[in-house]
Amino acid sequence: MKNNPSPDTLCAQALGWIEPTTKALVPPVHVATTFERDPDNEYRSGRSYIRNDSPAWDQVEGLVTRLEGGAATLAFASGMAAATAPFLALKPGDHAIAPEVMYWGLRKWLVGPAREWGIAVDFVDLTDPAQVRAAIRPGRTRLVWAETPSNPLWQVFDLGALAEIAHAAGALLAVDSTAATPILTQPIGLGADLVMHAATKYLNGHSDVLAGTLTAARTDAFWERIVAVRTGGGAVLGAFEAWLLLRGMRTLPMRVRHASASALFLAAHLERLPQVAAVLYPGLASHPQHAVAKRQMRGGFGGMLSIRVKGGEAAAIACAAQVKLWKRATSLGGVESLIEHRASIEGAGSPVPGDLLRLSVGLEGAEELLADLQQALEGVGAEA
Ligand SMILES: *Cc1c(COP(=O)(O)O)cnc(C)c1O
Question: Which of 114, 194, 237, 273 could join 75 in a cystine, given CB atoms 3.0 to 4.6 angstroms apart?
Fold first, then answer.
């Protein structure tokens, strides 16, 4: 095909690969841990040992690279392994900037092990470019980390503006694009240097694989440091997980668009319910960064939203207790819809309001999802 294939085509055919020896349309599960050396002592296959490189990763990494418009991708054992790799590639004394409210697991790692290893991290309001500029430490800031839309308030950060600030300071912009997926946002096209996905979530989409990816705009010296972090640290993706992930990705565009449409439908209706104090969703005109989201996200605003329930923490927990169709569980991006009282799982020190319920919209009927939430909210109202 001459024209650039759409994400739909790239995903449905997993880049159109055919297994060369059998002509199979689906790749085998490559479980080999070691590869034969040539008689003259060379490794012409380019592969020696699985922790360095495995054919199991080729298609997943190739597909994510194409979807993101990047130069190369590394698959990791988890989203956290992918997210921590750029920080582990920094040097003691280096400084990074991250959002005030962000994916809790990474924030905990940044304020714990990363700081102990000598990486200074400031958490600032990334919606305000002036605050980001003020947080830059000239000569020391190496990385600006943006997660957009961000957990669990679904703030949207202007990646073009952040890239400009980061690059002017000689720093890189890395984006946790888990919630947006490459279907809705391509950060590299907006100036980002690195794009990370918790592939556990939308990329796989079926709540049965732990995986992460990191994509680079360029394969430069810093990327080589990240490759060394994966190879040396060994947080590589297993063969079965890689196979399942590729299978999940074949339907990624359909799933993301469906979830986005349902989330918008739910957000618009929930905003009108008397028991709901606020709906946090970038697709709503009431969202503070709606204009940025409209510019930056194409084809939808994602399947993630949060609601703040009137009556505070007790009312929110009671609402989650009364759903019948939604599943009470953490995580996101799967085919089944999940509801979670976020402050409970984050625990002490969480900046998340107690009245907040995080919703991951799956592929069930949107009307049924709304009706279930509505009866749960009404039940709480009746009890209060
Ligand atoms: C889940 C998640 C991660 C971590 O991914 P794991 O696969 O659980 O390690 C990072 N960022 C975001 C936005 C996530 O939702």
Answer: 237
